[in-house]
Design brief:
The protein is an all-alpha fold and 500 residues long. It has a domain at 1-116: Serine Threonine Protein Phosphatase 5, Tetratricopeptide repeat, CATH 1.25.40. Helices cover 78% and strands 0% of the residues. It contains 27 helices and no strands. The chain has helices at residues 2-16, 24-36, 40-53, 62-77, 79-85, 91-115, 120-132, 136-149, 154-166, 170-181, 192-206, 210-226, 231-243, 247-260, 265-277, 281-292, 301-317, 321-334, 339-351, 355-368, 373-385, 389-402, 407-419, 423-436, 441-453, 457-470, 475-499. α17 runs antiparallel to α18. It is elongated and about 135 Å long. The chain starts with a helix and ends with a helix.
């Protein structure tokens, strides 16, 4: 597309040369003017033409043309511009176009830096584009070069702070943000508000303690004084309030952000997560659906994974199991090694009574996380539903090796052994259950039934009496006690007759 535009514009530019003296200087000026008018494709073509002509630069030089070409390409890669040209709108189209434009911008900055490696602004802009590509470590290297040349540059420092936050170096980020706030005040398209914003992110990332979260909120609020209509500040304020479990306040902040920037997928996702936490599943689903069609930072597979995983959970909560399964499958496609995604897929299959496929999903999950007791319990239940009792028993034994005091697992083991007609072992398992929880009614009933089957009527009677001490209205225990009393009376009678 860009090559086509250049080919189309070149004859037009050449024709104008007959009327006005076209030089690299005039072409570069027109490139700059086109950027200001948001005609980015024209700007790219004009700056390229200036570089090809390469004569009579006047006030400018090739660095100016390369850097302005990079600026135009960067704007061309930003989400609103790309969304407007992707028809139909799709994540693949948007990501591809953004990546291509940012990569081309990076290449243009590389040309400019090769000519003038001591231009701090070039290094800063180089870092900003790398950050847009989520290449944060490389961005830090570019920022470091810029700071060697201009150590107090606020724009570079706030970019460096943001990159450090992205790679989890929150302590370093906090230091750099503080440096940005006392720097030279050259913010470019950023602002001091962004430094307060990134500072808040750094503080909140260090600790979930209330005092730290309050400090982070204070920093965000300093930023909002400077830029009350900044959607990122409101979104991050909501995220911090969410961490502080101030859910109503968090929703208010997210709504303020979305009123300004309604396409932010991250904010819709955060809002949906809060609504999910509050059990407002229909509203949460609506928020996640908006996130799917919104703007997500380039190449953020983790963000998409979280989105589809949480959407699956909400659909499952709403008993929409087929849709929950579809969402979970989207998540496993994005991240085949995601335990959560396979776990959710297993839950959906189980809810649909598709136990064989549920077992396959749980098997995948346990291969990735073999010591996850919750997963093993679900797998054991699924195998039991499939009638594969011995395999289920093997899984139960794995659980008990990991957690020997798992009460329900001992009870489940007893049921499995009972179904395999291994009554003595089953009785041992139920007895172990009761050692861990003497008030486990179901284990007492199973113990009583087995003892009665073994003709240990006195012991069985004790088990059912124990049930009735806990729950005097338990009909199963009442019926068993009545029958046992009859059996014991009959035994006693027979014993007396034998004695006589």
């Amino acid at each position: 597309m860009k090559r086509f535009l250049f080919a189309f514009l070149s004859p037009w530019i050449a024709l104008q040369a007959t009327a006005t003296s076209i030089t690299s200087e005039t072409l570069t000026q027109r490139c700059i003017d086109s950027i200001q008018q948001k005609n980015y494709r024209d700007a790219i073509a004009l700056c390229k033409q200036a570089l090809q002509l390469n004569q009579a630069w006047g006030r400018f030089n090739p660095v100016t043309a390369w850097s302005n070409q990079a600026i135009a390409l960067t704007y061309l890669g930003d989400y609103p511009t790309v969304r407007a040209v992707c028809n139909p709108v799709s994540v693949a189209c948007i990501n591809r176009a953004r990546s291509q434009n940012y990569t081309a911008a990076l290449d243009a900055y590389n040309h400019a830096i090769a000519i003038n490696p001591k231009d701090a602004t070039l290094w800063t802009n180089h870092g900003l584009v790398l950050a847009k590509l989520n290449r944060f470590e490389e961005a830090l290297t570019s920022y470091d070069w810029a700071l060697k040349l201009n150590p107090e540059d606020s724009l570079t420092l706030v970019g460096r702070c943001a990159a450090l936050n992205k790679i989890g170096r929150s302590s370093d980020a906090l230091t750099v943000c503080d440096q940005a706030l006392i720097g030279n005040g050259r913010w470019g398209e950023s602002s001091a508000a962004e430094a307060w914003n990134q500072r808040a992110v750094a503080i909140a990332s260090q600790s979930p303690e209330p005092s730290k979260l309050d400090e982070a909120l204070s920093s965000i609020d300093r930023g909002l004084v400077l830029k009350p209509q900044d959607p990122n500040l409101w979104s991050n304020r909501g995220a911090i309030l969410w961490r502080a479990k101030r859910y109503s306040d968090a929703l208010i902040a997210f709504d303020r952000s979305l009123a300004i920037q309604p396409e932010s997928a991250q904010t819709w996702f955060n809002k949906g997560t809060v609504l999910k936490t509050l059990g407002r599943y229909r509203e949460a689903l609506s928020a996640f659906d908006r996130a799917i069609t919104g703007e997500i930072s380039l190449n953020q597979d983790a963000a998409w994974l979280d989105l589809w995983t949480n959407r699956s959970v909400v659909l499952w909560k709403l008993d929409r199991y087929s849709e929950a399964l579809e969402a979970a499958q989207r998540a496993t496609t994005l991240a085949p090694k995601s335990v959560r995604a396979w776990y959710n897929q297993g839950l959906a299959f189980s809810a649909l009574k598709r136990h064989r496929e549920a077992n396959e999903a749980y098997t995948k999950a346990t291969e990735l996380d073999p010591d996850n007791v919750t997963l093993l319990q679900l797998q054991a239940q699924t195998l039991q539903a499939l009638g594969r009792q011995q395999e289920a028993l093997n899984v139960v034994d794995r659980i008990l090796a990991l957690n020997p005091t798992a009460i329900e697992t001992w009870y489940q083991k007893g049921l499995l052994l009972k179904s395999l007609q291994r009554d003595d072992e089953a009785l041992t398992a139920f007895t172990q259950t009761l050692k861990l929880d003497s008030r486990h009614i179901n284990a007492l009933i199973e113990q009583g039934n087995l003892l009665r089957k073994m003709n240990r009527l006195e012991d069985a009677s004790i088990a059912f009496e124990s049930v009735l001490k806990i729950d005097a209205t338990n009909k199963t225990a009442q019926a068993a006690r009545t029958k046992l009393r009859q059996q014991l009376a009959q035994q006693k009678k027979e014993a007396q007759q034998s004695a006589n």
